[in-house]
Specification:
Alpha-Beta Plaits, globular, about 40% helix, 5-stranded parallel beta sheet, alpha/beta, about 450 residues, Rossmann fold
Length: about 450
Amino acid sequence: MSCNASVIVRAAFPVGADSLSSAMAAITKAGGEVGGMDTVRSTRDAITRDVVVLGTDDRHCDEMVSTLRGIPGIEVLDVTNGIFRAHEGGMLTMRSRVPVRSRDDLSMAYTPGVARVCMAIHDDPDRAWDLTIKGNSVMVISDGSALVGQGDLGPLASLPVLEGLSLFMRELAGVDAFPLPIDLDDHTAMADVVVKISSVFAGVHIADIAAPGCFALKDALASALDIPVLHGDAEGTAAALLAGVLNGLRVTGRTIGDTTICVAGPGPGPTAFGRLAEAAGAREVRMAHSDEAVHDLVRGADVYVGASAPGSLGREDVAAMAADPVVFALSMPGPDLDPADAGGVAVFGTGRPDLPNQVNSTLAFPGMWRGLLDVRATALSDHAVMAAAHAIAGVVAEEGAMAADYVVPSVFSTRLVPLVSSAVAEASRQAGCARLAIP
């Protein structure tokens, strides 16, 4: 069961009757699960409870709600989709860091005291890093043209995704990220807008923008700004993928210098991974830009990495690969290789949370941003992306639990962000992209 298919049923249950146990039994018999239960209110005659019902899909949840409505004595008062409940009011808010409880507080936070801070920044612009929110702020942008596997849904529909990315940065790495959907379909114009509003930010995070426009936007921003521009779907995904490949090869007794890698799909993740794999010293990297080319280029390959199309890789393709192949199939909503056809694969990873070795950019970008901000980086270097990949791989090695079904760490590993951030900070310093020494 998954919280992606869940409803919260508010219902009144008669006091002293067995209706609650009947409801639990009915949900279980229908193939569902009860994810939790809270008491809302109680009276002499009835107890109102919120029951979280987990199903396989929305239709299954609807069927279980209908079953509950049919149980004598139970009054279903309201049904709320669990996902929509989590997003009500948005997932972010703004909080102040200093109190305003007296006239002195007001005078220091605003007029007349703030004038001194304004003049300090006017005289030395670098002081904005210390005296404002700038030093810990990242702009998260999208036009919604390639939105979480759903296609072009537009900039406003991208807002929940951008909120989610901002939430991860805040909760996992202490970064103040702010979502900014941009209602432009011209990437030159989009770059111009971002540059004009960038003064308050220490970095720009690009998300869910369709290729090839995303590449043009990244290049334009990187050349125009003196702050890092990180494309989460590109560098973030590539770093996580390389970590999985490095550990997958270790599990099967190989190193990247001895391997041939087939990379499929025109998207940012595979494209960036191909470049990163070459830089990491892969013996050969074969780029397959069409589903038809995959079947030829995967022959004899030790590794397949792709986000091509669901089912674009088959059992016969796996059989044609080198012995003990490593496969990361990230296509959504279904992976390139169906898990049922992965029997001959030594290490198998996807983008799905219900299977081992889930790979996505969240493994990389929170820690990458923490490291970049800690040294006030002027740019994101290839060296820093490579360092992030090795650090992610190192989390698993440090835990001593590496196995075929565990080659990438959990995003909730307490070691992940510290290791990645310190590696990225040091790599940025070595690349000459750091304003500050390593903290």
